[in-house]
Design brief:
mainly alpha
């Protein structure tokens, strides 16, 4: 279901948004919808590039204690 949303923006910003949308081959509404979708946070693997998606789950789950990580960084940057 689509619902209309009215935004009040500076005329210059609207021109820029329309120009950007035209270059992207999308409508301003689609650009805004994409942006709002990204604000909600990444959706699991669909937002990941194929190379990154192929790495998901490659490592065994585990916990690294903060102190261990600090020690690692201290040793690394000596």
């Amino acid at each position: 279901m689509h619902t209309k949303l009215t935004l009040r923006l500076d005329a210059r910003l609207i021109r820029q948004a329309k120009s950007y949308a035209r270059r992207q081959g999308k409508s301003v509404s689609a650009i805004v919808a994409d942006y709002f979708h990204r604000l909600a946070g990444p959706d699991t693997a669909e937002e990941l590039s194929p190379p990154v998606r192929s790495l998901v789950g490659a490592l065994k789950p585990g916990r690294v204690a903060e102190e261990d990580y600090r020690r690692y960084l201290t040793d690394k940057h000596r």
